[in-house]
Write a structure and sequence with these properties.
Elements lengths: L7 H14 L4 H8 L3 H7 L8 H11 L3 H6 L17 E3 L6 E4 L10 E7 L15 E8 L2 E5 L2 E5 L4 E5 L4 E5 L5 E7 L1
Antiparallel strand pairs: 1-2, 2-3, 3-9, 4-7, 4-9, 5-6, 5-8
């Protein structure tokens, strides 16, 4: 696979470089973010998918914009940032989700808004994740199933959900169709 097929290959050296620039060991960074040092070290290799929530946490801890880690460039806008329909910065967080960053040009963000498309999948294909912070989801299209621990929630367009991201969660589109939603992480 090329680096275009594996964006974590491009992001990993930025993670390592940022951590080193602020003078933290892998263990210190992991402790401050609340993950294992093994996971943090793996993200810096570029061999595993890197959760957006982890990138957001590292960017926040190191006081840089998430854009620095995602694209290698600085965000420059301070008053507002307009992103036209379909023009968000693609973030290949997971092979099965399509993430588009909607505020990648804005400097000094306190939250990260994404437009996310989740395909339909069977129950045995669900993959749970958890991470520090909170999330707000607002469904735009399709029916979305969100599993929060043992709870199963179904959302339709116009429904929203606010939850602790530390709760293990998994998502899928229902009715053999993708679901699209806004996801705001902080």
């Amino acid at each position: 696979m090329t680096s275009l097929e594996k964006p974590q290959k491009e992001i990993a050296p930025r993670l390592r470089g940022l951590r080193e620039a602020v003078g933290l060991t892998v263990e210190e960074l992991a402790e401050k973010i609340g993950i294992s040092a093994v996971d943090a070290a793996q993200y810096e290799t570029g061999e595993v998918e890197i959760p957006v929530s982890y990138l957001f946490a590292v960017a926040s801890l190191c006081q840089v914009d998430l854009t620095v880690l995602l694209s290698g460039g600085e965000a420059h806008l301070h008053e507002y940032s307009l992103v036209k329909a379909g023009q968000g910065l693609s973030v290949d967080r997971r092979k099965s989700y399509d993430y588009k960053s909607l505020a990648y040009r804005f400097s000094g963000k306190r939250m990260e808004p994404f437009q996310v498309t989740v395909p339909p999948r069977s129950e045995d294909q669900l993959s749970f994740t958890s991470h520090p912070g909170q999330e707000f989801i607002y469904v735009l299209e399709g029916r979305l199933e969100i599993r929060l621990g043992s709870k199963i929630l179904e959302l339709i367009p116009g429904d929203s959900l606010y939850f602790s991201s530390r709760t293990p969660h998994a998502l899928r589109g229902l009715d053999n169709a993708p679901a699209q939603f806004l996801d705001v992480i902080n």
